[in-house]
Amino acid sequence: MENCIFCKIIGGDIPCDKVYEDDRILAFKDIEPQAPVHILIIPKKHISSLNDLAEEDSKIISYIFLKAKELAKNLGISEDGYRLVTNCGKAGGQTVDHVHFHMLGGRNLQWPPG
Ligand code: 5GP
Ligand code: ZN
After folding, report:
1. Measured from the CB, is residue 87 less than 6 Å from ligand 1?
2. Ligand 1, from 8, 26, 40, 48: best to mutate by most atoms within 8 Å of Cβ?
3. With 90 as the cut, is the pLDDT of residue 84 above it?
4. Can you name the CATH fold of 5-105?
5. C-alpha gyration radius of the chain
6. Any idea which residues carry the catalytic annotation?
7. Structure pTM?
């Protein structure tokens, strides 16, 4: 997708601090970390937001959650706990229109979020 920052990261046009990659997903460090561990997990397929999810996307979304579990373990935050969150739309705080899951950990997170 043209003009999508995350598609450009996937394509290698914009560099990122990669944590994990396979044929379906990419995980990389957030450029403005909000916690000691803050990575973004994205599907390589461009999906603009949760509002645009189709039935056929159910596999990739569940795959992201399964990989998130593995990544949390590898990043050493599994036992203490962490948060996997996605923002949708303007009021939800979404600033990049390519579905992504924030994985936050390494500190005690507040609830509710702001
Ligand atoms: P959102 O606000 O859409 O939920 O999250 C977008 C996230 O992407 C933000 O946490 C922001 O810091 C991160 N971000 C935006 N542009 C870039 C970039 O070019 N590289 C990386 N690594 N993260 C980015
Ligand atoms: Zn995209």
Report:
1. yes
2. 40
3. yes
4. HIT family, subunit A (3.30.428)
5. 14
6. 100
7. 0.98
